[in-house]
Amino acid sequence: MSARDLWTVASIERVEDLSPTIRLFEIAVPGGAEPWRPGAHLGVRVRCDDRSERRSYSLLDIGRDDGRYRIAVKRMDDGLGGSRHMWSLAAGAAIEITQPQDDFELGHDAPAYVLLAGGIGVTPLLSMAHSLALRGRAVEFHYAVRNREEAVFADLLREWLGDGLHLHISSGGSRLDVDRMIAASTEGAELYVCGPVGMLDAARSAWQAAGRRAARLRFESFGSSGHYANRPFTVALPRYGLELTVPAHQSMLSALETAGVELLSGCRRGECGLCAVDILECDASLDHRDVFFSNAEKVEGARLCTCVSRPAGGRIVIDTDYRGRDARVPS
Amino acid sequence: MTTTNRNFPLNAWYAVAYDIELNRALMPRTICNKKLVMYRRLDGTPAALEDACWHRMLPLSKGHLDGDQLVCGYHGLVFGPNGRCTSMPSQETVNPSACVRSYPVVERHRLIWLWMGDPALADPAKVPDMHWNDDPAWAGDGRRIHAKCDYRLVVDNLMDLTHETFVHGSSIGNRAVAEAPFKITHTDHRVVVTRWMRDIEPPPFWSYQLRKKNGEAGRVDRWQIITFEPPCTVTIDVGVAPAGSGAPEGDRAAGVNGYVLNTMTPETDTTCHYFWAFCRNYRLQDQGLTQWLREGVTRVFGEDEVILEAQQQAMLDHPDKEFYNLNIDAGAMWARRIIDAMIAAEDAGDPRPVRIAA
Q1: Of B72, B89, B195, B216, which is the most buried if we count CB atoms within 10 A?
Q2: DSSP sequence for A249-301
Q3: Which residues of A touch B99 (CB under 8 A)?
C-alpha cells in the first residue's frame, strides 16, 4: 500500500548551506509537523522546465523537535531539475508538500543494525541512527563520501554513535569495502542502504554472496544517480512513426508522455516496473538505474524502465505494448 | 502539534489473545482500530502484522502460512514475520518498498501482548503484571469477553465495586459492599482502592469457598484491594477470612484469597477485548473448583456486560451529555486521569517517534 498524497501549502522558514552542494531547508506547516517514523519522507511538488513533478525527500532528524520539517537537497546540475528548483527557493517561499510517508521503515526485531549511506543518501538513515542510538541498540553506520566537505552529518552522527560511525572518504584514500563491512556485522543483522545505484548494486551482490537473508537487506532506491552522466539522446518508436530527442534534464518517461505516447507508470523511481518498454536496438550503453530488473535482465538488455533508466547518449529504438489499429499518435 | 481524539494511548502493551487462541492458523483481530493478523511461527513465538496486503490490500488473514511466512491469498506475495515482502509473482526482484507493518509482540502470563506505538519503545519489562496467571503458587483460569463498550467503562466498573451490591446481588454483592468505607491512594502510575468489610455475613460466592477450605463459614472479614496499572489492567486482590482471625492486620492464613485479573484492550472506540482470569492460592489441584470459579465469574461478568453495553448505548444516545461523578468514582477518575495524561504526552511528542529533543 502506498499513502495517498495529501497536499498542503507550507513555507520555507530558513535555508542553510551545509556544503557548497547540500542545502538544508526548514519547512513550517500550519499546525506544526505531523509525527513521523525513522526513514520517512515528504512528497514535494517541484517545477522542472514547464512541468510540475513530484519528488520525495527524506525527513531529517537533527535532534531538535520544534514542529518543523527538515530536508536536505543536493544540487545536481545535470539532474532532472528537481534539485535546481529546490535551490531556486529562498526563505519565505511557498512549497507544496505531502504528509510524511513511510516506504523505508526501520525494523524492530534485529539483533544489530548496519546503516550504509552514500553521499546525500545519508538523509533517511540519519533518523534511523538517532532512533536506534536513543534506544541503545547496536548500530554500525558506514558513511561513504567523496570528500570531507560532503560528510555534512558526520559530526552529528559522531555525537550520537561515537565509534559506531565509520567515515569512508574516497579522496582521502579510505574507500568502503562492502564485503568487509558485511563480514564484520553480527549474524542476523539488518542492513539499510541509501546511496547511488552503484553502491546499491555492490551492497546487494555482497549481501547475497555472504549468504545473508534477502529480507534482512533494505534499501531505498535513488533513481537520480546512474553509472553515466545524464546526456541527451534520441528515442525512436517505429510503431508510432515517432522520433524525438530527450534532453539531459528530462526522463525518457516524461519525454514520451509529453509527446503523447500513453504509458503506464507507478512509483516513478525505478521500483515497480510498470513503465518498462521493449528495446529493439540501441547504439549506446544502457544506464539501468532501476531496482526492478535483476542484474541478469539488465545484462540481457531487452527492456528498460523509462522513469529512471536511459541510454548514455546515442539513439535507442523502442516499442511499447500499444497494438491499436490507428498506430499514429495524435499530435 | 496535531492532537488526536484517541481514547487510548498507543505506547503500551495490550493483551490481544489468550495463549490457547493463537496457533498455526491466521487469526484476524482488530486492536486499537487497526486490523491485524496474528499467528505462531514454527518455534511457537507469536507474530503480528497489519492485515492488508501491500499490493492490493486483501486481508492477509485470507491467505495461508508457509513455514514462518505468510502467503497472500490473492496474488501470492510472500511476507516474513517482520512484514518484509520476500517474493512477488512474475518478476525476478522484489520491490524494495514492499512491506506491511509488523508489531512487537510477546507472550507473558498466558496472554499474547502487542505494542501498537513506537516499536523502539516496546520494552517487554513493561508488560503489566499478571503473574498469578502462570505462577505455580496459584491456580485458575479465565476467558475473553468481546464487550461492546469503550474499554474505559470496564476500568470504571472495576475501580468501584459498589455496583456488586446491585448488579451481582445473588453471588458476590451484599449491602456491606455499598456501606463499607474505602480508601483511595495513587501515584503517577498506579491507583489503589482498598475496602475492608469487617465482621459481615459472607455472600454465597465466598461462603462456598470458605467451606471448601475450612469446612465451615461463619462471619468474615472481607477485603477488596483494587490496583489499576495504566492504561487498562486492573488486578483485584479479594478474599475473606473468619472474622477476627487477623486478616486486616496481615494474617490471611485462615482465609481464602483470590486475584481477579482483568485487562481490557480497545478494539474500536466503542468495543473492547476483555481478558480476565480468577486465580486462587488454595486447593491448587482441585480442578472442580477451578471450573466452578471460572463458571461463577463468567456469570458475574455476564451481568456486568449487560450493564456496560447498555451504558455505552446510552452514551451514544446522549452525545451532548457527560457523566456526573460521585464520591465512589474517585478511583475511576484517577485511572482516567493517568490514561488521559499518557494520550496527551503522546500527542505532545513525548515520547514520540523520532522527533525527540537531544
Answers
A1: B72
A2: TS-HHHHHHHTT-----SSSSSSS-TTEEEEEEESS-EE---SSS-HHHHHHT
A3: 103, 105
